[in-house]
Design brief:
Length: 315
């Protein structure tokens, strides 16, 4: 007979088990999952359309894939198992990219995250939300096929960490070389299936012409896209005064300005012109554009971006 008291299981407490598991995860992963969980509370379930029939590609079977997707005829030709993906699945694939160039290492205060830290958090939290909805995600520029499931998050994190380690090694190797070439500030050309979607996260401080070339290479393939510009608040206000030395983060050299406040008006006008131009560029290709400041919480930007991706065909 039930005494009215809750049943007590002999298994280890679920909360403690979860804490034990999260203790072995990278701090960035823990933070991304926490942000994603907060945002997911305000997101309702998504309606899914049926499978398409147009063949897209074969890819290797991965843990978490349904065995019903295995193409046994293709798999019989070689040792690995292969999955047959259709064009509908390609349309649901989302490629994520974040700028890892030296300018992203900037922060104007010890109380703020670096721009690259916030970009990594947004990327991984967005990936977490997407795989919860059953979407396939991949990291642009790595050649990895889009995949879904919780395991993809650790793969994304490990690839980002590898990129950062390579950047640090190159920085140490070339710190005395004025001709050293910094990592690219924009994504390189990559052939992707039509109707796919891309999310680009960075400061986009390159020239508008360079941005136009990079975006057009993706948009002209029939891809829809979303741009999130990461800005440190000091970059938008130039709050400094007096004699200030500015060091270029990407090989531009350094400049000493006697009264930096005398340049504030012109600087702010040019910064605004650049950002307006970037937004207009994105809109001209039918892409969305958003600004995220590192002194703001990531949840609002993440929710808006996820809702955009949740709309039919990414528009």
């Amino acid at each position: 007979m039930n005494s009215g008291r809750p049943f007590k299981s002999h298994q280890p407490d679920i909360h403690h088990r979860a804490e034990g598991l999260s203790a072995h995860l990278p701090p960035l992963m823990v933070a991304a999952e926490r942000v994603a969980a907060t945002v997911s509370q305000g997101v309702h379930g998504r309606r899914r359309v049926g499978q398409g029939e147009t063949f897209w590609q074969f890819r290797r079977y991965e843990f978490g894939d349904s065995t019903q997707l295995i193409d046994w005829r293709q798999s019989a030709k070689s040792q690995p198992l292969y999955v047959r993906e259709t064009e509908w699945e390609a349309a649901q694939s989302i490629w994520l990219w974040r700028d890892g160039s030296p300018s992203m290492d900037y922060r104007s205060s010890e109380n703020l995250p670096q721009k690259v830290e916030r970009a990594d958090l947004l990327l991984l939290a967005l990936a977490s939300l997407l795989v919860r909805g059953g979407e396939h995600v991949a990291l642009l520029g790595t050649g990895m096929p889009p995949a879904t499931g919780r395991g993809i998050l650790l793969r994304l994190w490990s690839m980002i960490e590898a990129q950062d380690r390579n950047k640090d090694r190159n920085k140490d190797r070339n710190k005395d070389l004025k001709t050293a070439i910094p990592p690219a500030s924009l994504p390189a050309f990559e052939t992707l299936p039509r109707y796919g979607r891309v999310v680009l996260i960075g400061d986009f401080l390159s020239s508008l012409e360079e941005a136009r070339k990079a975006i057009s290479m993706l948009a002209n393939q029939g891809l829809s896209g979303h741009i999130v510009q990461i800005i440190d608040p000091a970059e938008e206000t130039l709050p400094f005064s007096g004699r200030v030395r500015f060091d270029g983060t990407e090989g531009e050299g350094e400049v000493l300005i006697g009264r930096v406040e005398s340049l504030r008006r012109d600087y702010l006008a040019e910064f605004q012109r650049h950002n307006f131009g970037l937004e207009a560029l994105a809109r001209s290709f039918g892409w969305s554009y958003a600004v995220h400041h590192t002194d703001a919480s990531p949840e609002a930007t993440l929710l808006a971006l996820y809702l955009l991706l949740s709309q039919k065909n990414g528009h």
